[in-house]
Predict the structure.
Amino acid sequence: MFDLNEMVMAQEVLVMPPYSGELFTLTYGALVSQLLKDYENDAEVNKQLDKMGYNIGIRLIEDFLARSNAGRCNDFRETADAIAKVGFKMFLGIVPVVTNWSASGDEFSLLLENNPLTDFVELPEGHSSLNYSNILCGVLRGALEMVEMEVAVWFVQDQLKGDNLTEIRLKFIKRL
Amino acid sequence: MTTLGKQRSHILEKSLSKGKLEVNLGTYALLFSEIVQYCQNRVYTVPELHSKLSAMGQQVGIRILDILFLREKGYKRETKLLNMLLFIQTVLWKALIISIFECSFVTLCSLIKDYIIEQEPLVNKFISVPEETGSLNCAAFIGGIIEAVLNGCNFPAKVTTHWHKGTTFLIKFDESVILRDKQVEGR
């Protein structure tokens, strides 16, 4: 997909522009507000965001594998670490905390202290069921599906709704 | 809506982020591709697609305008046309580099520094980037950002996006802008 030269050039560009993250945040905001105009209710918007995230995820995983040299994960705990420490770091520049494991080890939470998607964002009244960053759920689901794992992903807490942290929960369902 | 134990802090009470955040280019490219696809599914013609992308670009433009002036210019706005264009050429362009280039995908990133701004007599200004392999859809989005920035600074203008030596944004100012600028210059 990329040749080496192109990758090196891409990396050079990555270091340079200081606002790239903001442009990203604002672009995402424009998308969400467009969706809110186009769809009837928050649930539909959540669904649409999830779908877009899924589309992104199934393509993003390629990039992830190509650049990270990550080997196969032996268990779900390794997967969790790879998602948080490599995946999130690589694509969003943050490292969420992996925590709240279920007893059986098939469920965990990602805690995000500052979510780059929600800079500058305030949820207006009457959108309490909107999961603004729902695209992340889709991305995780899509990306993991491509490495033969079916997972369920959902938001538990959201800073936009007044919680202290943003918490995303992942549950392993089955190996595909 | 404050529920017990949950105190929602007002966004204006938080300090403005320093803009240090950086995201991976691929992330942006993928997000943008989803946006383009989404818009494409909802329109029939290319001009419609352009205006849709431009509308979304404007959403970004009006917001980025505030951040840039606040941070780069110490709250001062530009009042002269030429300075405004310089602002777009330097500050805004720097902020947008990634997005312009993401559309052409990785191959053209070294060319992005060579963008040309041709200045014609005050009515028409061309800002062009070297040839892009991507479609000009992306550029319409940028066009929208430029338009919103200009309008936000009270330089009413229409920005259209064309193919001309790559992508060209044609900025057509309202007559009042030209008149006002002449008056300011004349003083």
In short: Residues 1-5, 98-135 of chain B have pLDDT under 50 and may be disordered. The CA atoms of residues 102 and 135 of chain B lie 11 Å apart. Chain B touches chain A through 47 residues (CB under 8 Å). The first strand of chain B starts at residue 116 and ends at 119.
